[in-house]
Amino acid sequence: MSQEPRRTGFSGPTLVRLLARLTDADAPPPATSLSGQLSQWLGWPDAIALSAALKSAPAAAPTVARACGATAEEQECARVRAALADAIAGDNALTARRRGPARPSALAEAVDAQVDYAIYRHRYVSQQQAMETAIGALRGRLRAALSTRAPDMARLAMVDAVMERVLGAREQSVLGSVPALLEGHFQRLRQAETAALAEARAAAAPVAPGAWLAVFRKDMQSVLLAELEIRFQPVEGLLAALRGS
Questions:
Q1: CB of 234 closer than 8 Å to CB of 164
Q2: Is the predicted pLDDT of residue 64 greater than 60, yes or no?
Q3: Distance between CA atoms of residues 242 and 245, nearest Å
Q4: Where are the domains of the chain?
Q5: pLDDT in the model for residue 34
Q6: Taking the model in full, what pTM does it have?
Q7: Using CA atoms, how far apart are residues 100 and 111, in angstroms rounded to an integer?
Q8: Which stretches of 111-176 are assigned E, i.e. beta strand?
Q9: CA-to-CA distance for 227 and 233, rounded, in angstroms?
Q10: What are the phi and psi torsion angles at 212 (to 5°)?
Q11: 46: buried, middle or exposed (CB in 10 Å: 19+, 13-18, 0-12)?
Q12: Is the C-alpha dihedral spanning 194, 196, 198, 204 positive or negative?
C-alpha cells in the first residue's frame, strides 16, 4: 500500500513555493490577517508615521498634461525589470560552462575541488543589492509622479514612502535568509551525486559527473527571478495607481 505524501501542495508566491521545494520544508502556516502582521512589525514611531500619512490632506497638485498617460512610467518599469532579469540570466556564475579535464573519471573530483558555495552566495547577494538599488530608485520616481496627480494619489505616494521605510528592514531580513537556504540545497545536490557516482563506479557503469552543478545553477536562477517578482510588487501597485489616476 502506497504511503501518503509527506506534505501536500500549497499555493503562494512563486518564491515561497520554490524554496519549499528546494529545501524540502513544510509550507508556512497561513497568516491570520494583514493588520495582525503589521501590528507585530510596526513600532510606535512607525505606526504614528503611517497614521499621519493616511490622515494627511495634501494640497491640490498642479494639473499635469497626460497626453501619453502613464506610458513613460510603464516603459521605465519595463526597462528596469528587463535589465534586472537579463542580469540574472546572464550572470556568469550561473551560466558558465565547466572546463574540466578530458578524463571523465577525474572530472567529478576536479569539479568538487573547484566549487565553493561562497562564490554563489556572493553572486546571489550582489544580485539582491542590484535589485534593491534599482527598484528603490524606480519606486521613488513613481511616487514623485503620483505626487503630481490628485490629492488621493499624493497621499498614496506618502503612504508608500512610509511603508518602504518601515518594512524595508523586515524585507531585507527575510530575503537575506535565502542564500543560506540555497546553501543547504547546494550541499544536498553535491552529496547525492557523490553517492550516485560511487554506486556507478562500483557497478562499472558509465560515469557522467557534474550534472548536480548545472541543476543548482538553474535552481538558483529560478529563485532569483522569483525574488525579482516579489520585489517588484510595490512597483506594480504604484504603476496601477498611475494608470487609474
A1: yes
A2: no
A3: 5
A4: 45-51+69-95+107-244
A5: 43
A6: 0.74
A7: 7
A8: none
A9: 10
A10: -60, -35
A11: middle
A12: negative
